[in-house]
Amino acid sequence: MSTTQETSNISGYHDKTPIYIDEEILQEAVLEQGLQDQAERIAKKEGIRFNEALRLSLEYRNIQKIDHLWEFSSLTKLNLNNNFIKKIEGLDHLVNLTWLNLSFNNIKKMEGLNGLRKLEVLNLSNNRIALIENMDSLMELTILCIANNKLHQLNNVVYLRKFKKLFTLNIDGNPIPEENNEEKYTLFLAAYFQQLKFLNNLFLNEDIRNRASAKYNLDIEEMNQGELQAQQAAEEKRRQEAILQMHEDAFVEQLNGDYLYNNIIQNDTELSKLHCLPGVDELLEAFERQLADLCNQLFEVGLTEYKRRDAEVNLFFSRLNADVTDSQRRASEVLADFQMRHKRRTVDLQEAPENEKKSKTDVCLQEIKVLCYNLMAVEFQLYSYLEETIRKFDNNISEMTASFSESAQGIFVHCRELEDSHHQKITQIAVTTLEVVAKGEAEDDLPDDVRMLFLDKNTVMDTLAASHDNHLQTINDRETQLVTRAEAWKVALIKGIEDTELKRNRMRIADLHRYADYLRAQLKE
């Protein structure tokens, strides 16, 4: 479609003033599309719960900006076609979205989509997009319509090869030069997209596939090889990142080598002057090797303890999910039994003579009360059980964390002892050098700045003491960081579990009361 045609299609609603999405518009849309009759009256009375809406259609409303959608966390289908939207934004919280229509807008750039990891269908037709980009995370994409835009490079479309589930692609009506040669255009895309079934509403049959393969075979082989190498590099990068993340989660990152040693001496410029003294280099090499051995020991302890904690955490959540599932099953059985009997009672109530209606209504109300009691009992039993389970889990994790911290602190004690021993040996060499310089027997090749340093004993001893203190401070800082982070992780974990369980319990009780009120309202009608 040409730009003139596109403008013609849009002009039908240009006579209205552009508007923005607000809560009133959203409430109206949800009521229109998802609630009817009694449900609508209840929603108006109690408030609409946007986080339960599954579909939302806001087409032909002259909307200029996507906004106020953060509560729609359960939304699976969103229709915003035929509006004035210029920018794709405000969709980050729609993590369950599988279908999105933004056709017939004024969008110039593909952006704001990477949070939609479950998206399967995307319609961006009839916009002003010149480049396919910024959609790397949409690996579930199966249908993409981007017809009648401003795409002008066929090679840019090859970007979509990474989406292995894509089987329908429509890029018709774009100013791509090859479109004047329909066969070349079709064969090129058929060759580069082996999984594609439909291109611009054309079924890619076996004949098209064979001709495409014959024409672009060498190009495809070269591209496949390049993509394979890139994929292997990306997988290796992800593997390395996962390993580093595990080291951080174990609180022992960069302790499997000479990182701590380098941290200790990297800013010690005064100590570096002593390298020229006999025996100092050998002492430093021994100190580096022995400190690295201690750090590697701590590193291995950290990984072992991390695996223990991780197994305990996984076991806890597995048990928690099983307990919640079992409680939901028992509540469903209670509810199913009530609904079967309640249906019969309401039929009897409708058919009963006027003089019996009150007594039958009272029976129904009493049964609703019993239902609430039974469901509350199930929920209370679950809450009490989980409370005890969380307490035991807290004790186990606290014990594991304390044990690890104690082991780590023991190794850091050895690190400090090693530094003390190293400091004493360096000091002995310095004292010997002071005596040699004082007698005028220093080696001729001794650097001038070192010779000047050893003219004053107090300066030398103060320098060594400051160096020793700095080394110990570096070791202490790393110890404090490890212990503090381990404790903070434990506290945050337990608090998160407790907060989540409390929120679940409150929502469950609120839903229970809401359902009971709904049943009572039905009886009144």
Quick gist of this model?
This protein is mainly alpha-helical and 525 residues long.
Describe what this molecule looks like in 3D.
With 525 residues, the protein is mainly alpha-helical. The protein has two domains: 3-235, Leucine-rich repeat, LRR (right-handed beta-alpha superhelix); 259-524, no CATH class. The chain has helices at 3-10, 23-34, 37-46, 154-157, 182-192, 206-249, 259-265, 269-272, 280-351, 354-438, 448-453, 457-524, and strands at 19-20, 55-57, 63-65, 77-79, 99-101, 121-123, 143-145, 168-170, 198-199, 202-203. The longest helix has 85 residues, at 354-438. It is flat and about 120 Å long.
Features:
two-stranded parallel sheet, 12 helices, mainly alpha, single chain, 525 residues, Leucine-rich repeat, LRR (right-handed beta-alpha superhelix), eight-stranded mixed β-sheet
Largest sheet: 8 strands, mixed
Q: What is the approximate shape?
A: flat
Q: Evaluate the radius of gyration.
A: 36 Å
Number of helices: 12
Taken as a percent bin, the fraction of beta residues is: 5-15%
Total count of strands: 10
What is the number of domains? 2
Runs with pLDDT <50, length 5+? 1-14, 35-46
What is the arithmetic mean of pLDDT? 87
For the termini, the CA-CA separation is: 56 Å
User: What is the helix content?
Assistant: 55-70%
**Based on helices, strands and strand pairing, what is the structural class?**
mainly alpha
Strand order of the largest sheet: 2-4-5-6-7-8-9-10
Order of secondary-structure elements? HEHHEEEEEEHEHEEHHHHHHH
